[in-house]
């Protein structure tokens, strides 16, 4: 970027090129975000299980919880493990929910390994808005597959993530790779 472009009147100079991603504006503006903490306030994790799997991007279902693709993934295959029950804290799960959350997490890791061969994973929860939970009222655990070099020049220098396939294709691949109960 030239000095003149950095000083252009349409933004603050910061040295970064721009890759426009208008589809992200929906997330930024709060699309699919609940209007409040109750289940009937538009919670997407309460809504998803009532839809067809292909429509909601649900990959697998259990008795007390399910696995769904993240609509705004950090990496390809980014899964969320959610209890069906609208609860915002891990300590509020009962024993059956806690066990199935663990089983779904383990199964998600197995499916991701079968389908995409990641070399590692980030697994965790953000409990509460101050901890980074985008939807704090409904507990969800992240499974983010990682590959050596996935922090390559695009996110490091280009500040851009590249996802190599559509979410619906990822959902189909992971559903086919999901281990039997």
Automatic annotation (TrEMBL):
Gene3D superfamilies: HIT-like (3.30.428.10). This is HIT domain-containing protein. It comes from Streptomonospora wellingtoniae. The keyword ATP-binding does not apply. A motif (Histidine triad motif) lies at residues 138-142. Keywords: Nucleotide-binding. Residues 44-153 form the HIT domain. It comes from the Bacteria.
């Amino acid at each position: 970027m030239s000095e003149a472009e950095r000083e252009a009147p349409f933004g603050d100079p910061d040295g970064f090129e721009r890759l426009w991603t208008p589809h992200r504006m929906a997330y930024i503006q709060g699309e699919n975000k609940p209007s409040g903490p109750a289940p009937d306030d538009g919670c997407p994790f309460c809504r998803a299980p009532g839809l067809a799997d292909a429509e909601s991007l649900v990959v697998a279902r259990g008795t007390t919880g399910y696995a769904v693709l993240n609509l705004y993934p950090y990496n390809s295959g980014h899964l969320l493990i959610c209890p069906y029950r609208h609860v915002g804290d891990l300590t509020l799960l009962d024993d059956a929910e806690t066990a199935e959350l663990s089983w779904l997490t383990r199964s998600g890791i197995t499916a991701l390994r079968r389908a995409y061969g990641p070399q590692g994973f980030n697994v965790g929860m953000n409990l509460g808005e101050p901890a980074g939970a985008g939807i704090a009222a409904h507990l969800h655990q992240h499974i983010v597959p990682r590959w050596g070099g996935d922090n390559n020049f695009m996110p490091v220098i280009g500040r851009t993530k590249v996802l190599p396939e559509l979410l619906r294709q990822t959902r189909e691949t992971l559903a086919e790779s999901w281990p039997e109960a």
